[in-house]
Structures are given as C-alpha cells and as structure tokens.
Amino acid sequence: MFICLTSASDSDWSYSCWPHTCAAGTNIRDLRVCIDADVTMSAYVIAVVKVCFAALHEICSVCRSLTCTTLLTLVHALVVTKVDYCSSVPSGISGQLLQRLQSVFNTAACLVFLARKSEHITPLLCELHWLKVPERIHFWLCVLVYRCLNGTAPSYLAETLRLTADVGLPRCLRSASTSTLVIPFTRRTTLGDRAFPVAAAWA
To answer: In angstroms, rounded to a whole number, what is the distance separating the alpha carbons of residues 20 and 17?
Structure first.
C-alpha cells in the first residue's frame, strides 16, 4: 500500500499517494488506481471487479469457438493482468473486498475449464497455478520489496525502507546480520499499518 499519514491531528488529517497529497473527504485517481476518501480501497476493488467481469462476459460469448490455449491467453490478457496491476495496493483491505477480487479468479477459472459454479474451485486454481488473492497480494508485495532492496524499484519507494543493520543500536542484535526491515511506528492500525514501509516490513 502506498498510502501514509502526513498529519498527527485526529480531526484534520491528510494522506499522501506520491506525488499527490490530498485532504480527507476527497477521492483521487493515480496510475489508474482509484483511492476513496476513507482509504478502504472499496472504490478500487469495485472498479477492478466491474472491468474484469465485463471482460469475462465478452470472452464467454466466444469461448466455445476458442481453443483452451487461446481462451487462457485471453483471460490472462484481459482479466488477470487487471487484478495484478498495482496488486500490492490493496494490502491489508477487508476480507469482504478480498472475496470480491477472488470471485473474479473463481469465475475466470470456471470459464477456462467450462466448469459449473458448483464445482470446487481450489483444484481448478491449482491446475492454472493461480494463487488466491491474499497470497497473490503478498507475493507481489514481496517482489516489490525485493526490487527496493536491490535497486530496481523507484527511489521514492526504496527510500522508505530501512534495514535493521543500518540502524544504530546500543547492543548487537541477531537481526542486524539479516535483511530484516525496520517496522515504523504508526498511530492508526487501520491506515498506518497498511502504509508501504509497514506492510513491506511485515511481508
């Protein structure tokens, strides 16, 4: 999640989505990601789910005329890539929103295998080598952290991470010899714990 608090006041706070800073009560769209006023990411999830199901509906209308390989390619290109785009942004969202994103993959898997909705979805996802949404978000977050630590991510993200080895401590800790990240202090668990430096350290 690329959101971080920029004010200590409980009644008048703002949030930052680089390079923008917005007051509470406004919605912003950055990199085609819609962020709602209360930062629940519900607007983002609703938009992604709507676009994906529209694409699945179009694919379904021609799926009988396609080979399995072509069908899977279309699903990857028009559906999976939309969910994976900025996929570390919804880190820490509610289970209800995660389930809405998961419904996209469940429907796509049923379409690829021409399966009924009543069939067990887990074997189909395993056959496609698709992670479930919570694990998928965690995977892409870890990839982004790896890129930050190895100098291939944007500097404005990499600069928010600090290794425990780089922090001066009065006594030597075992974590100082590892790539463990410092977990920043946060005041709000609903927002602060979803900030990128915090989510990256816990990943």
So the answer is: 5
Q: What share of the chain is helix, strand, coil (3-state, %, to 5)?
A: 50, 10, 40
Q: How far apart are CA 126 and CA 103, in angstroms?
A: 15
Nearest to 26 by CA among 49, 10, 43: 43
Question: Given this model, what pLDDT does residue 7 score?
Answer: 44
As a whole number of angstroms, the distance between CA 201 and CA 198 comes to: 5
Tokens in use for 56? Answer: 């699945």
Model pLDDT, residue 2: 46
- Read off the tokens for 87: 């996929």
Distance between CA atoms of residues 148 and 152, nearest Å:
6
Distance CA 81, CA 141 (A): 16
Strands of the 4-5 sheet, one edge to the other: 4-5, 14-17, 20-23
Helix (H, G, I), strand (E, B) or coil at 43: helix
Model confidence pTM above 0.85: no
pLDDT at 23: 57
The residue ranges of the chain whose pLDDT is under 70 are 1-26, 166-178, 188-190
